[in-house]
Amino acid sequence: MEWNILLSATVIAAIISGIISFSTQLFFEKKRVKESNQREIKEVDKLILHELYAPILDVLSFNIFPGDGYEGISSGQLTDIRKILDNKSLLVDTELAEIVYGYEEDLIHLWRNNSLSEYDEKCLDDDRKLLEHVNKIYNLKRKSLNYPYDKENL
Fold first, then answer.
1. CA 14 to mean position of chain CA atoms
2. Measuring CA to CA, which residue among 41, 45, 43 is closest to residue 53?
3. Which residue in 5, 11, 23, 89 has a CA-CA distance of 20 to 30 Å to 124?
4. What's the rounded Cα separation, in Å, for the pair 85 and 102?
5. CB-based contacts of 129: which residues, under 8 Å, 6+ apart?
């Protein structure tokens, strides 16, 4: 009878030990996967920031003059931005694409109606929709990467 109790205690201890071991292993595996996913997200954010939004912001900044501020972009700048989007199409979010393609549609409509010459001196993005979107995402990505960022543009 004594060996029966000893055997039962040993089996119970082995089961509890197995449960604890399995739980610990599961916890650390989930933690490892989560950290790995976070590293991947940061790498993608870094790629989006450096390969997409920083170059677009450089193009947008070309028309910003001290005292004048931002007055929009020209059709040439829109072409430069479109080239960036085409080269980095996997990184482009739908809102950015919709804004840029919307401006392109506006230009095509003017061209078809032979009123593009009247539009040459006017600027696109006079409502600052593109600038605000680019500034917002640019700063969100910088924040997620623990880079300095502009809190006002979030």
1. 49
2. 45
3. 89
4. 14
5. 99
Whole-model pTM: value is 0.75
Q: Give dist(CA 42, CA 5) in Å, integer.
A: 55
C-alpha–C-alpha distance, residues 76 and 82, integer Å:
10
1 pLDDT exceeds 60? no
Q: Taking phi first (over 0 means left), then psi (-120 to 50 degrees means alpha), and beta for anything else, what does residue 82 get?
A: alpha
Read off the pLDDT of residues 20-73 as tens digits, 9 standing for 90 and up. Answer: 888 889 888 888 888 888 889 899 999 999 999 999 999 998 877 777 788 888
Phi, psi (5° rounding) for residue 70?
Answer: -95, 125
Segments making up each domain of the chain, as ranges: 40-153
Which contiguous run of DSSP H or E holds residue 113?
Answer: none
